[in-house]
Write a structure and sequence with these properties.
alpha/beta, seven-stranded mixed β-sheet, three-stranded antiparallel β-sheet, binds pyridoxal-5'-phosphate
C-alpha cells in the first residue's frame, strides 16, 4: 500500500494547461514564415469561423475578453456614471472593464446552486441610473436568460454577456453571446478555446461591429492589413481616440484549429466532469449541481465547495494539500467585494453578498482540461479522496 507521505504523482499537474495539436504549431509556423504576424487573413478567418459556430451575424476579434468587454460598453453608448449590474462571482476583469469604460459597477448576489447572478437580486438593485446588465455564465453554466432578457427589456437596459467561460454554452437551444447586444469571449490559456491571449465580441448590428473594429485599432478608419496589402497603400484617418486591442494572426492561427476541435474537447471535459461527480458523490464536499437539461453546459470549470464544518479541513489547507500532492488547483473566485480596492472605492462589503461570500471562501477548482489523460484524472481523484478522508 502507498505510504501516506508519498505524493500522488511525480510530476506537477498544471491547472488549466491547454490541449494543443500539431495543426496549431504548423499554422503558427506558417504565419511566421509568411512574414505576416499581425492582424490579417487568419484573424479574418477566425472571425468567420467563430461567428458561424456561434450563429451570430457579426464577430470582431480582439486581444482579450477584457478588451471585448471594454469596447462593448463603449459601443453600447453608455455614459460616464451609468450603472452596470454584474455578478460578484467573476474575475476582476469584468469589474475593471466597467470602471475603465467610465461606468459604475453594481453587484447583485448569486444563486446558491447555479452560482450565477440571481435575477431577483438584479431587479432589487435597478435604479434610475442603471443602463446595463452584465451576466457571466459562470463555469460554463448558462445564466437564467429568460429572466435576465425580460429585466433588460422591461427596464430598457443593454445586455452584455461575459462568455469568458461559455463558448459552447447554450440556453434553450440558443448560443450564449447572442442574447443581448454584445457577447464577449476569452481565449486566454486556460479557456476552452485558446489563442494564448485573445478575445472576441459578438454583436447583432453591423454598426456596432464596425465601431468595435475601429476602436480596437486606435480609432483608425482602415486597419493595417488593408493599408499595407498588395492593393496599394491606403491613407487612414483617426476618427476616434481608440485603443490597441487588435488580435494578431499568430494568435488566430492557434484559435482556428482550437475551434475546429471544440466538440471533441468539450466531450472530453464532459467525461472528466462526470467522472469527478461520480467519484466524489459520497465525500463530505459539495459537488457542482447537475447540468440543467434545457441548457448546454460548457464544462469550463469543475468547482467544488469545501465547507470546513463538513469536510473537516479548511479550504485553504485543502488547496495546499492538493499542491503538495502535485495537483494544480484554482479558486474561481474569491467574491469581488473581498478585494480592498472595491471596498475602498465603492464601500462594498462581502457580507452584503452572502452567497458569493460563502462560495468564494469554500470553492476549489480541479483540473478540467481536454489535455488530461486517464491517469491524470485518476490522480486528481486519488488526491482529493486521500486528503478529505484523512480528516
Ligand atoms: C469571467 C471572466 N471575465 C473576463 C475575463 C477576462 O478575460 P481575458 O483574460 O481574456 O481578458 C476572464 C478571464 O479569466 C473571466 O474568467
Amino acid at each position: 500500500m502507498e505510504s501516506m507521505t508519498a505524493k500522488t504523482r511525480e510530476k506537477f499537474l498544471v491547472f488549466g494547461a491547454p490541449a494543443l495539436g500539431r495543426e496549431e504549431i504548423e499554422e503558427v509556423t506558417a504565419s511566421l514564415e509568411s512574414g505576416w504576424l499581425g492582424t490579417g487573413p487568419k484573424v479574418a478567418r477566425f472571425e468567420e469561423d467563430f461567428k458561424r459556430y456561434k450563429k451570430s451575424p457579426y464577430a470582431v476579434a480582439v486581444n482579450s475578453c477584457t478588451a471585448a468587454l471594454h469596447l462593448s460598453m463603449l459601443a453600447a453608448g453608455l455614459k460616464p456614471g451609468d450603472e452596470v449590474i454584474t455578478t460578484p462571482m467573476t474575475f476582476c476583469a469584468t469589474i475593471n472593464a466597467i470602471i475603465h469604460a467610465g461606468l459604475t459597477p453594481v453587484v447583485a448576489d448569486v444563486d446558491p446552486v447555479t452560482m450565477n447572478i440571481d435575477p431577483a437580486d438584479v431587479e432589487k438593485r435597478i435604479t434610475t441610473r442603471t443602463r446595463a446588465i452584465l451576466p457571466v455564465h459562470f463555469a460554463g453554466r448558462a445564466c437564467d436568460m429568460e429572466a435576465l432578457t425580460k429585466l433588460a427589456r422591461d427596464n430598457d437596459l443593454k445586455l452584455i454577456e461575459d462568455c469568458a467561460h461559455a463558448i459552447e454554452t447554450e440556453y434553450r437551444g440558443q448560443k450564449t453571446g447572442t442574447f443581448g447586444d454584445f457577447g464577449c469571449f476569452s481565449f486566454y490559456v486556460t479557456k476552452n478555446v485558446v489563442t494564448g491571449e485573445g478575445g472576441m465580441v459578438l454583436t447583432q448590428r453591423e454598426q456596432d461591429a464596425a465601431r468595435i473594429k475601429m476602436l480596437a485599432l486606435h480609432g483608425m478608419s482602415k486597419d493595417a492589413w488593408r493599408r499595407f496589402s498588395d492593393d496599394g497603400y491606403k491613407h487612414y484617418y483617426v476618427v476616434e481616440c481608440g485603443f490597441k486591442y487588435n488580435m494578431m494572426d499568430i494568435q488566430a492561427a492557434i484559435g482556428i484549429h482550437q475551434l475546429a476541435r471544440i466538440e471533441a474537447n468539450w466531450q472530453r471535459r464532459q467525461e472528466v466532469w462526470q467522472r469527478y461527480q461520480e467519484a466524489f458523490a459520497e465525500l463530505p464536499i459539495v459537488c457542482p449541481a447537475a447540468a440543467e437539461a434545457e441548457s448546454r453546459h460548457a464544462y469550463h470549470l469543475y468547482t467544488m465547495l469545501i465547507d470546513e464544518s463538513e469536510a473537516g479541513i479548511p479550504r485553504d489547507e485543502f488547496l495546499s494539500a492538493m499542491t503538495k500532492e502535485n495537483i494544480g488547483v484554482g479558486v474561481h473566485y474569491l467574491s469581488i467585494p473581498e478585494h480592498p480596492y472595491y471596498q475602498e472605492r465603492f464601500g462594498w462589503q462581502p457580507e452584503d453578498y452572502p452567497q458569493a461570500r460563502r462560495i468564494g471562501r469554500q470553492t476549489v477548482s480541479l483540473p478540467l482540461s481536454a489535455k488530461l489523460n486517464e491517469e491524470d484524472v485518476e490522480d486528481v481523484i486519488e488526491a482529493v479522496k486521500k486528503i478529505i478522508l484523512r480528516y
